[in-house]
Design goal:
2 copies of one chain form a homodimer. By secondary structure, the first copy, chain A, is α+β, with helices and mostly antiparallel strands. Helices cover 26% and strands 37% of the residues of chain A. In chain A, strand 3 and strand 4 form a beta hairpin.
């Protein structure tokens, strides 16, 4: 194993910086945290990826952080409601199959349907 | 909030692809998972960052995944022992103070002291 090009199971990492997000009530109230967690984990499963476990945290100022371990690697997000900004990361390896399509589909649904971003900066890193 | 340049609390995301890792016994036996978790969380604290919660998973074939939520954003890693490869991500926002030095110090200690990589590919993304 000398470098990326010779690595057997290359994956893709989607890095999203989501601006002008529509932060709904369920995102900014502590009581809605469990529902949000269930909703995001269901969307991950629907996209064809497998959730192993997760940790979600509610901050003061109504910000939320979520880290989700997948069989295929991970999903993370962090919200800054006061700036209408959310960061998301979706990293999937392609160990058992090519998960690239699942990753892109999940990126779209999280950025548009969950965080309702009007200005999406998306970067793709092969790793 | 129009774009990255006008975002108030810019952070840095360090992306590590670690090749030629020295995978010790404690990394590849299920019994060592709790110790590894404690060790990594202690190193995060020593670097000046705050652990909120985490989820670690042990796969068959002795691979490990860890996702750690920080007050400053997150740390994640995934090991592929059969390829002597480990991916790590350290994302810190600079909300309350500049955490860049902490992130770089943590990157060094994880890649060298924990995963014992001899070939480190490090990328920095401002976000």
């Amino acid at each position: 194993m000398k470098d990326f090009n010779s690595k057997k199971y290359n994956g893709i990492h989607l890095i999203g910086d989501l601006f002008e997000c529509g932060i709904d009530d369920f995102l900014v109230k502590k009581s809605g945290l469990t529902n949000l967690q269930k909703k995001i984990e269901k969307l991950i499963k629907v996209s064809g990826l497998e959730v192993l476990g997760s940790y979600f945290h509610f901050f003061s100022k109504n910000a939320i952080t979520g880290v989700i371990a997948l069989a295929e690697s991970h999903v993370t997000f962090h919200t800054w409601p006061e700036q209408s900004y959310v960061s998301i990361d979706i990293f999937v390896c392609n160990y058992s199959r090519d998960n690239s399509t699942s990753a892109h589909e999940l990126f779209n649904v999280l950025s548009k349907d969950i965080f309702k971003s009007k200005k999406i900066k998306k970067q793709l890193i092969n790793r």
